[in-house]
Amino acid sequence: MEQGMEISKHEADGLIVTLDAAEFNKAVGRVMAAAEARSKIPILTHILIEVDPETGLSLFGTNLDMQAEAGFVPESARIDQGGRLCVDGAMIHQISGRMKGELTLIESKGRLRLVCGRAKADLPTLPAGDFQKLGDMEGAVIVEVASGALKAGLASVQHCISTEETRYYLNGIYLECGGGNLVFTATDGHRLGHLEVTASGEALPHFEGVIIPRKAVQAFLKLAEVHDGEVVLSISDRMVQLACGRDAYRTKQIDGNFPDYHRVIPKDQPIHMEVPVPDLKEALNIVVAASSDKSSAVRLTPTEGRLTLSVRNEFRQAEAVIEHDDIPPAEPFGLNGKYLQQALDRIDAPLVKIGMTDAATPFRFEAEGSDLLQVIMTLRA
Amino acid sequence: MEQGMEISKHEADGLIVTLDAAEFNKAVGRVMAAAEARSKIPILTHILIEVDPETGLSLFGTNLDMQAEAGFVPESARIDQGGRLCVDGAMIHQISGRMKGELTLIESKGRLRLVCGRAKADLPTLPAGDFQKLGDMEGAVIVEVASGALKAGLASVQHCISTEETRYYLNGIYLECGGGNLVFTATDGHRLGHLEVTASGEALPHFEGVIIPRKAVQAFLKLAEVHDGEVVLSISDRMVQLACGRDAYRTKQIDGNFPDYHRVIPKDQPIHMEVPVPDLKEALNIVVAASSDKSSAVRLTPTEGRLTLSVRNEFRQAEAVIEHDDIPPAEPFGLNGKYLQQALDRIDAPLVKIGMTDAATPFRFEAEGSDLLQVIMTLRA
């Protein structure tokens, strides 16, 4: 080969490992969830690769607020020599993703060589010491939870996370323990989602409530999706970690006080109606399509056995009617149509139960067979 | 109903038609290809709806350069009254897309009412006369062509259309007749695609070469994709139209001279090689992944029975080797890796034939079983 592309294993002065290109690529993809694809700080675009003849490979990515780890002993792999280095994560992900079959990684003179069949690539490295791991989880409370339950908790309320940066303490999901359950709550001040899920068979240890940032919620969800069975939450003073086997996401908590959300959940509501979810979704889709302004304010008018949805603006008007026995007459009220659509998307039951006090008080949305409680503030209708 | 949402058929002072919501929605979608979703000129966001008890529905959309028409006699529909009006295309598309089953359109007092089951919407209209149809196709040369052949012609060369607005005459596909065939050519000055396809059984009438703008190329392709069998091209002095039944796209031609491309197609090349397409694609993917700079310059080094692809920049280097009998030794040359990838994507054969004069002269790419000729200029390697 020309242009000095030849590094043989003899010249290696660090790690030498041979493994399946696809398996390596997948692990790199997992830790890239925490790394930055582009950053002015080079180390944030880099992943840390640790190779240990005893324990196999460990990959790490970080954005300084969150850290991802993927550990594995590659199947049918050979570790000839251990070592540690950092390399551009997006680049090695892109290149290894186009390689098939056996891939050998060789470190030599500050560079990492990828060899796969008749193809090779040569990438610059940074010292392993440049990678800043998040502090460890010492003293953390350990909670085992079924991956499905954790997923339900996060996925059911995450649409209520606020995107307003000034209310940073609402930019995540509040996780606490209550009544022996894990309790997930998110709110953006206009709506609220709240779900209690059973942890594992054993008694839930006590921990102080923590706010898990939005980006970590998404990473946790991804991890819970690919792992069945039990996963392990670790909650320390300043961090939260979700681990499945040797894969883990660790995140700093949002440092703030989650508001006392209990007082915004309306209780003892005098008016209750049950509405068929498919009909309500269909009606809502039509009137929201006609609204197109930012607030998407939809007016809902309950009359005996009938709920009329309508929008009316300068240009257009639309209306759709749903009929159902369990609709009592009540004063018309206004809701954000998009919030209502998202709330219904979380309901996997034929009927939604709507609790109402009056047109100015928040509404409750619940459904048979689910503990998910959703609250939506009213708009002027 | 409240708020004056009630328009009954008796109040109609224009069109009344009942048809399947999905069928209507699909036709609106087709003509929206020419309309603008957003524009400061209201009529450009509007579609024209014409209802005629004899001929059925005709919908039109325009951006003043291109016009789309969808004509149909709706199945199991009822036209109670004819009429013509303009309505916001994106809005009626969005609303009717959420309606299911029988949809009735009623015009009354400058508004269009949609009624579908228990849902209705009420939209403002503009007078039909505000819609500016493109001039007609009088005196046009008519060419019948199999939809598959037209699709092949457009799809094989469209990646070579220039995006440089200053070279507006390259912003489309040049269509001419030559040797009894339809000839499609596109070039951006760095590469060229050229394909001759047989029109229909009958003799191809003569017409002057025309430049079909990129947006029309995409619309033509869409139309050719949904229609099997013969389609009809009409070529007038200033316009080109593609019609399939009562669906048609009509476009202004690009008013300019397409350059004499024959002189950039290299002839009598002394060096020829054949390279397996899957191997070349795989090798190219790896080295292009490592390049990541804008030019994507890839160096190709042919030695006896072997072609080495390599990239080398400030940070990285990568190389991949392909072996094949029909590779003669030649001087190394440089090509834009992304152009080469796109050229290979159009080749549906196991081997690509590469014709070479020297490292400074454009390369030809052809394949067995296809008339597609592609030319790529060289880069300094």
Automatic annotation (TrEMBL), chains A, B:
Native organism is: Hyphomonas pacifica
Q: Which UniProt keywords apply?
A: Cytoplasm, DNA replication, DNA-binding, DNA-directed DNA polymerase, Nucleotidyltransferase, Transferase
Family recorded in the similarity comment: Belongs to the beta sliding clamp family.
Provide the taxonomic classification: Bacteria, Pseudomonadati, Pseudomonadota, Alphaproteobacteria, Hyphomonadales
Q: What is this protein called?
A: Beta sliding clamp
Q: Name one GO molecular function term.
A: 3'-5' exonuclease activity
Subunit composition and interactions: Forms a ring-shaped head-to-tail homodimer around DNA.
Question: Domain DNA polymerase III beta sliding clamp central, which positions?
Answer: 147-260
According to its UniProt record, what is one Pfam family this protein matches? DNA_pol3_beta_3
Q: Which GO terms describe its biological process?
A: DNA strand elongation involved in DNA replication
Membrane-spanning parts: none
Q: Where is the DNA polymerase III beta sliding clamp C-terminal domain?
A: 263-379
Biological role: Confers DNA tethering and processivity to DNA polymerases and other proteins. Acts as a clamp, forming a ring around DNA (a reaction catalyzed by the clamp-loading complex) which diffuses in an ATP-independent manner freely and bidirectionally along dsDNA. Initially characterized for its ability to contact the catalytic subunit of DNA polymerase III (Pol III), a complex, multichain enzyme responsible for most of the replicative synthesis in bacteria; Pol III exhibits 3'-5' exonuclease proofreading activity.
Highest taxon, organism lineage: Bacteria
